[in-house]
Amino acid sequence: MSTSPSPDELLAVGRVRRAHGIRGEVVVEALTDEPGAVFAPGRRVFAGTTSGKPARDELQLHVEHASPFKGGFIVRFREIIDRSAAETWRDRYLLVPSSELPPPDEDEVYLHDLPGMQVVRTTGEPVGEVVEVYELPQGLVLELRHAPPREGTVLIPFDEHTVTAVDPDARVITIDPLDGLLD
Questions:
Q1: How far apart are CA 104 and CA 116, in angstroms?
Q2: What dihedral angle (degrees, nearest 10) is formed by the CA atoms of 55, 59, 62, 65?
Q3: With contact defined as beta carbons under 8 Å apart, do 143 and 153 qualify?
């Protein structure tokens, strides 16, 4: 009997960027608003693949130490013992069960909840459905599949200038796009 959570219950909270030093530490980009709690000593995280899915081996890592470093953290995990082992972790995701995270605030939504949401204009006119979320240096971008009769996809920024409301319960994102953005 496995004590690991099912894959749909795991959320990405960090991404290993590279090895740091010779003792197995890694540089982690935090993907959570609560990195201090997630990367606290003794905390357990699950190994993920480079695509963000849970690793097949259900490997668990335990935080021994974490310290802020250039917008992320240097993290020492008990199971990663040297630089050679740390190098194999480059670009892998770190996951935790959703039940171990606080629910998002009223005006927030988890990124993994965005795909499948319907997108409408402030007038109520359907625009399409979110098919993918991209994290770019400029910010989050949503790929939308156009609502019929239009075909194809379009990219829109997920920012305060374009998105006016997100209703996670109704699974609807309301936008007020600049002229030409949806063409």
A1: 18
A2: -50
A3: yes
168: containing domain: 111-175
CA distance 56 to 164: 39
**Measured distance CA(12)–CA(63) in Å, rounded:** 16
The predicted-structure confidence for 140-168, as pLDDT tens digits, reads as follows 899 999 988 889 999 999 999 999 999 98
Q: Is residue 106 part of a domain?
A: no
The reply to whether 56 and 85 lie within a common domain is yes
Q: Is the pTM of this model over 0.70?
A: no
How many domains does the chain contain in total?
Answer: 2
- Cα–Cα distance measured from residue 176 to residue 30, given in angstroms and rounded to the nearest whole number: 30
Strand ranges (E), 21-149: 25-30, 44-47, 60-69, 72-77, 93-97, 118-121, 126-136, 139-146
The Cα-based distances of 26 to 44, 83, 94, 127 in angstroms read: 16, 9, 12, 42
